[in-house]
Design a protein that fits this description.
- The chain has 471 residues and is α+β, with helices and mostly antiparallel strands.
- It has a domain of 114 residues: 2-Layer Sandwich (Pseudouridine synthase).
- It has 18 helices and 15 strands.
- Strands 1, 2, 3, 4, 5, 6, 7, 8, 13, 14 and 15 form an 11-stranded mixed sheet that branches. It has a two-stranded antiparallel ribbon with strand order 9-12. A two-stranded antiparallel ribbon has the order 10-11.
Length: 471
């Protein structure tokens, strides 16, 4: 990107223009051969080896199919209803709080856009948890040392602020109870309500395996754990190279082609920037790394430090892989699962010893030394439940799919719960059995309607078939 001050929204607009040109000239570059199907083969790559094949369910046809509402520490649900709650009033303090409702972008992107619009550091904006991108989500956010009037006047693409009040303190990651989900899964014909009731009853009583889901491993590209493995071997140059040019099998042909071109000129950092800068939103991290390398060509650690958030996610993705593998191993060997398992990125020897067989096979026993240059990858004892029981509030089966309203404790993945009911399918090309009808998930569940928030987000309302197109 030639403009150093370009916002992520500007980058997205530039990328949309480029993609629309590609769409007109060679649409096949934007089309995968197959949708993403989280079948046994794909899940096993993430260490999930004990879930059998289930009825197909298409997820995230539209952000309106996937509604996430945060449950705060005091039990309040931050709904996607765009109207203010009159019961919320100012208290003593200097922190401004607001409910942030967003569509089509992840939490970090929303925070960065808000910070850019307010001309403040993103560190002044606190939040409790990460919310999905291809969704409509709502969560509580705190603003430190920022005037309330500036926040009230804020207009940011893909974002709506409500319930703006003054109080004390500030939000930190983990300051929430959990999340409420209203999700519509599109099915191949009517899903038998009695069969679904039986499955949900079993999950409610026994729980579901708390595997880390595919988004933990890098979403569509799906190689986060592989990058983490290389990083934790201490091979920083190879990790960086893989980040720049390794293809994800579910990336669109255009992105795969661009990585191939980058591979052909690997080491010529300026030429690689030229290849990636036509898609500055998708390749934001790659461009940051390459710009760092143009100044210090052989300083791979410094280049990785320019993308701290991503590097941290690689390490955690590898840890998630080992956690999944350990659950699969214990269940396969018919060993009773402990209530919780520690993650291996720990300063306690017993936590590392639990995963020794995997670490030896992967040659990552020296991970503590490997992460030393990256202080943001913290080693501490942290335990994760092996089984979770969702609070299932209601469901409704229609001829086009299944709507489910449920609640999960913080840190749990809705897609992990759903993967115990469906073989999840996502993305293009759209399977022929998937209904393209727009649905009102809240209305199906008799919980209200999405119409009010649709009016707020009308400029950004889209589905998997129209995403990226500009009117």
């Amino acid at each position: 990107m030639s403009d150093q001050n370009q916002t992520s929204y500007d980058a997205w607009l530039k990328e949309c223009d480029f993609l629309e040109k590609v769409r007109k000239e060679n649409p096949k570059f934007l089309e995968r051969q197959n949708p993403i199907i989280e079948d046994h083969k794909l899940l096993s790559d993430f260490g999930i080896e004990i879930i059998s094949e289930l009825p197909l369910g298409f997820l995230r046809f539209s952000p309106a199919d996937f509604i996430v509402e945060e449950i705060t520490q005091d039990g309040r649900i931050t709904t996607i209803d765009p109207n203010n709650d009159p019961s919320l009033t100012d208290q003593e303090g200097e922190t401004v709080y607001a409910d942030v409702v967003k569509i089509g972008i992840p939490t970090l992107e929303a925070v960065n856009r808000i910070a850019k619009s307010l001309n403040v550091s993103s560190s002044q904006i606190g939040y409790s948890g990460m919310k999905d991108a291809i969704a409509i989500t709502s969560q509580k956010v705190s603003f430190r040392k920022i005037a309330r009037d500036k926040i009230v006047a804020l207009k940011v693409p893909n974002i709506h602020l409500k319930n703006i009040i003054v109080s004390k303190g500030a939000l930190q990651p983990g300051n929430l109870q959990g999340n409420r989900f209203n999700i519509f899964i599109r099915t191949k014909g009517l899903y038998d309500p009695n069969l679904l009731l039986e499955k949900l009853k079993h999950i409610k009583e026994v729980g579901f395996y708390n595997f880390f889901g595919s988004q933990r491993f890098g979403g569509v590209r799906g190689i986060g754990h592989k990058l983490g493995l290389i990083l934790l071997r201490g091979n920083y140059e190879l990790a960086l190279k893989a980040f720049l040019i390794a293809q994800g099998k579910n990336e669109i042909p255009l992105v795969q082609e661009m990585r191939t071109k980058a591979k052909e000129v690997y080491g010529n950092w300026k030429e690689m920037i030229k290849i990636f800068e036509v898609m500055p939103y998708t390749f934001n991290g790659e461009i940051k790394v390459l710009k760092t390398l143009t100044h210090e060509p052989d300083d791979y650690i410094n280049a990785l430090l320019s993308i701290k958030d991503q590097v941290k996610l690689w390490a955690y993705a590898y840890g998630s892989l080992l956690f999944n593998k350990k659950i699969s191993q214990l269940v396969r060997n018919k060993i009773n699962l402990p209530e919780k398992l520690p993650l291996f990125l720990s300063n306690e020897r017993s936590d590392k010893d639990l995963y020794n067989d995997f670490l030896e096979a992967d040659k990552t026993q020296g991970f503590r030394e490997a992460v030393r240059p990256f202080p943001f990858i913290q080693l501490h004892h942290y335990e994760v439940p092996t089984l979770l029981s969702p609070k299932i509030n209601s469901f409704n089966c229609t001829k086009d799919g299944v709507a489910i309203n449920f609640e999960l404790h913080k840190g749990a993945y809705a897609t992990t719960f759903l993967s115990h009911i469906f073989t999840l399918t996502m993305g293009l090309p759209l399977p022929s059995w998937v209904s393209q009808k727009e649905v009102d998930t809240l209305k199906i569940l008799e919980l209200g309607t999405i119409e009010d928030i649709k009016k707020v987000f009308k400029e950004y309302w889209c589905n998997v078939l129209t995403s990226g197109k500009k009117e």
